[in-house]
Amino acid sequence: MSWIHSAAFSAEPLYLNTASMGLPPQATTDALTRELVGWAAGRRQANDYDGTVSRSRQLYAELVHAPAPWVAIGNQVSPLVGLIAASVPDGAEVLFAENDFTSISFPFAAHADRGLRLREVPMHRIAEEIGPETAWVVVSAVQSRNGVAADLDAIEAAAKRHGARTLIDLTQSAGWKDVDASRFDATVCAAYKWLLCPRGTAFLTLDPELHERIRPLAANWYAGEDPWSSIYGLPLRLAADARRFDVSPAWQAWVGTEASLDFLLGIGAPELEAHALEVSAAFASAAGLPDARSAILALAPVEGAVGEIRDTLERLDVMAANRAGNLRLSFHVHNTAEEVEHLGEALRGLVHIVTGR
Hints:
Structural class: alpha/beta
Number of strands: 13
Number of helices: 10
Largest sheet: 7 strands, mixed
Helix content: 25-40%
Strand content: 15-25%
């Protein structure tokens, strides 16, 4: 690529673990440092953060191509999914991808006593398994364990054909992959991975048609039409749009979130995707592997190579992850093709790509 943003980061190892925890750019580190100094000096008030949260909501909406009134803020994915799970009628069918991340399946499984019929099918068969009895299709846009992308076009078309609703987890896609959240009934995203934010911020997008159908189980003062006139007494008076599902924000975390989203949007979603795929492809080529066209690669060791792989990662000071027994590498804006080619050459002949089938 003609642009490289690695200078905006200060990681010491070769950091290939964004799928576990994103790195803050320098702008985020600076914003958080200023915030902590101001807090310690007694120069902060609760309403100082209203603009920060509002701008973060707008920035996220822009990044995922959704209207800002569709966006609610939260702290983690599972409570946001839980809102939707609680709305599913007794006995309804909910369809999942096999072995998807449990933050999107467990909230539905907790309603087993209501007779929900939960079906897991292989990722590549999701669209064909949607039928007239399917109430919701719940799937990650990109799988955490192996980086395999869902066929969102096919899923969207099949869901519309059968009248099923769609809930898409963007946690492992938004930030490196250019996704359009407005195509789906609901999406969720934890911001501490590819959005490079502090842990403790998350987003929900919800089609306006569902704003009155989903019960705001965490209704609170911050979800009020005017939060600062909603802090005492009944009656319930919630925002008319998706803000009715907001939870009171963890202030400092949102300062970092605003800065990180601003940084990413300064690059642009298409450019972020092109760069992540370029770096991933450079690694794959150097390692003698096929290009998986994903920013997340799951690599299984060839027989007898586990020790050599471990030694290689230690020698080259690589920060990565182990998921489902495989080495998981993730490539983002701070990585360059040159640095990952060196690792690819060192792992050549020691690993092979894990696919989703």
